[in-house]
Amino acid sequence: MTPQPEHANADAALATAQWLSAFAAALQRRDAQAASGLFLPDGQWRDILAFTWHILTMDSAAAVRAKLAETIERVQPQNFRIDPKRTAPRWVHRAGREDVLEALFAFDTAYGHGSGVLRLVPDRNAPGQMRAWTLSTTLQELRGHTEAIGARRPTGPSDLRDFGAENWADQRRKAAAYADRDPAVLVIGAGQAGLSVAARLGALGVDTLVVDRNARIGDNWRKRYHSLTLHNEVFVNDLPYLPFPPTWPVYISKDKLANWLENYAEAMELNCWMSTEFVRGRYDDKAQCWSVELRRADGSLRSMRPRHIVFAIGASPIAAKPDLPGMDSFAGTVMHSESYTTGTPWRGKKALIIGTGTSGHDVAQDLTAAGAHATIIQRSPTYVVSLKEAQNVYKIYTQGIPVEDCDLIGTSYPYPTLLRAYLAATDESTRNDKKLLEDLAAAGFRLDVQPNDYGFQLRYLERGGGYYFNVGCSNLIIDGKVGLLQYSDIERFVPAGALLRDGRIEPADLIVLATGYLSQQEVARRLLGDEVADRIGPVWGFDEGGELRNMWRRTPQKGLWFHAGSLAQCRIFSRFLALQIKACEAGLIPLAMPESSQAPRISAAVRA
Fold this sequence. Notes:
Number of strands: 25
Distance between the termini: 31 Å
CATH class of the largest domain: Alpha Beta
């Protein structure tokens, strides 16, 4: 909490209530001009479904005015109020600013109930006045279609002792078999993304089947390399409805998480078909549903006609394997990092790891720990941050605020303010990591350092990689215990290893391609065809409106959705994806995103 001198005695709750009252009154009069006048000229509004049925950023008071004018009549927003169940209004330091009054509020619309975050700052052009720097409005619940949780949990015959009838286990087996019906939603992928959205949809009464080609739920983590542990802290990683036990360690191992996912699916009564491959699918415009084929473990094919398909496959299940000169001649073993499990078989052997993202570093460190001689090959500059400093972007989750409030605050940043927050966090971490970065540069490691650097978070959101949290491999590189080669110094690969441009050969018994994965658009291309893939366009990375492309929202293809990201992103955005699917099922919104609803362009100056 950081009170400012000129407002130290101000009643934060009163200031918030006054602003919300003025905003609500303007909306009641359908006066978008007056409502936008409560913002700074460069004030911003992020709407998550509540007004627009979209995820949008408006980056100026003028853009706020235009979008309000377009939506007020239909949405009928009202009853803006401080939410007594949320963290109280308070002075905070946000995105490099220390004069911020942050308040969590509730409101209602014609479609449901919402929550939001308001950030007020002094208007330097109007002394004594507080104006909105940022506003977020988030749909939390659909009117008439609430989640069956808490006091609304199901009751009925299944809770009674009905002797001779089907019991709970019988009902679960029948529900999961889909012998006499098709699901409304088919989710591809039983990792944290698929399970989280299936849990949300189940609570909304939407019949959902999850399929995965792995044999067990959690295998997407269980089968990864032996030493893998999550790189962010337990406090941020809960899944919907079922938080981790308070006894769990700060950093969760991959097998512990894998087993938790398996238990989560059972506890949440999710319908999952494992060892099941999605073979192909096409959209039937006349029937307004998909026609898909699934291959079961016994080789049989099952045809289904779900109304929705959700790709919940992480970054992508298709490994990117670049065509490297001479690699076909290499006499040793070549594998992609997705297939790497342990360095034990390579003790005393020489290994080359191509790629300096998280997987490349972790594989090199694991091989070294196993007694192999590992050399990492750098193809492009990489952003490096220490593990401790990387947690700064999540530190609100350790400050005693309820997770639900942290999630609301975390999703409240419009794109321009998000950049400002990342910039402030990156400046701090770079200062604190100064010696690590200097020592890495001295060892010949090429660091990705940009002017006005926004750090690892923006790299993750823009391209899903390009960074490494140092959990020790950087120190091994600095100390010479892990070798370092620049790819530009390699002429080609030969049977014995890598032929360098100076004529030397870097010998190897193993080459690991830590070269990432193809995009989700390419997954859609393989499974749904070129026409669908071209229609939707790129998936992930920012669009011109400052939001992730095709993620967690309707796409240009009817009934096709994408859900991915960290455990926190899956927890948070599974709610919004499920609400939209439920709204489609209820006839409130169309299946595809109308062209007129596309995001307004964020100004070039802001994006720069």
